[in-house]
Structures are given as C-alpha cells and as structure tokens.
Design goal:
5 helices; alpha/beta; 15% strand; 7 strands
C-alpha cells in the first residue's frame, strides 16, 4: 500500500491516475508545509479548519487550496473526517507493508516548509512506538536543490532528483517489475 503524505497532490495524483490508490486519504489534496507527524500523533485534532473560508491550519501548517470554501464547508468537514478515519483505520489494521511517500518542498519554498527529513523521522519514531506491528517505509523524493538530506532511520529513504523527473521516477518505482534496474 502506498500512502501520499505531501507536500502537495503530485504523488496522490500519480497513484490515482495509475490505479494504485483507491481510497481518499487526508493528505491527498492539501499542501503539507509541515506537521504530518504532528497530525498523526494527535489524531488530526486540529487538522480540519473550524471557520468557514479558512484554508490553512496554523498548528500543522497545512493548506487546503481547493477545499473549505463557504459553499462546501460542511460537506468538506464530512469528507475529511471520513479520510482521517480511513487513514487511522489503515494504521490500526493494515497487514501489508505501507510506503509513505512525500515529495519534498521545492527550492522556492526552502525555508517556508518544516524540515521534510526531520518530520519524516519524527513520523517514523511515532509510528514505531504507537504501531509496533506496522510494516512501513517512508520515502522522501527530494526535489529541492538547496537542501541536503541524509536519513538516520533505517525506515526513511531519501531519493534526490529534479522535480520534472519525479513522475517518471514514480513510474519506474511503482509500475515497473524491475524498478531500480537490478538484474
């Protein structure tokens, strides 16, 4: 199972277009400048905006560019509550390996976003403690040329690439029978 965790909808869109994700999950349509680990740690308690027209949560630094508009506010609350419940159920019950995927911030957002690697490693610590039976990896696709990331966790992997090559890399990784070119 592959679960997108931000920074934007690039990975979620790829998964849906290639029929690799059939569930709606909380990070699919948002911009996660930070706070993914905090969202999961406190069960998304401040994830859903509470004010009509509010499109950003300060506690997690998550932006909802297409949701929580006045005319759809109540239905968006219902939809995101379902997405959160589905996500938490997966953490509680999933028997297969989960690959959490995050596209890093880009160079233009360098300094705005929380440290992608630090948040991924915090997520790893939380998942390991709270869900010890969960089998997972966390992939960060580093597209920012201004940062250097080196994971210290054995479950966090950083793949550096130009942003324009991310789609083809995802295709090789998730659609190919020989994703890394091994023979």
């Amino acid at each position: 199972m592959i679960i997108p965790i931000g920074i934007d909808n690039t990975i979620a869109d790829f998964l849906k277009e290639n029929h690799l994700q059939h569930l709606a999950l909380p990070f699919d349509r948002v911009i996660t400048y930070g706070g993914v680990s905090a969202c999961i740690k406190d069960y998304f308690s401040a994830f859903i905006p509470q004010i009509v027209g509010q499109t950003k949560t300060r506690q997690y630094n998550v932006v909802f560019p297409n949701d929580f508009k006045p005319h759809l506010f109540d239905s968006d609350i219902v939809n995101y509550t379902k997405r959160i419940n589905t996500f938490m159920s997966i953490l509680d019950t999933c028997q297969e390996e989960i690959i959490f995927c995050r596209k890093s911030h880009s160079l233009r957002d360098c300094g705005i976003s929380v440290n992608d690697l630090a948040d991924a490693e915090e997520l790893d610590r939380h998942l390991a403690a709270k869900y010890p039976q969960l089998k997972y990896k966390i992939y960060i696709f580093q597209v920012c040329t201004g940062c250097s990331m080196r994971a210290t966790s054995h479950r966090v992997f950083v793949y550096k690439m130009p942003e324009e090559e991310l789609g083809s890399y995802l295709g090789r990784l998730f659609l190919s029978s020989n994703p890394l070119g091994d023979t």
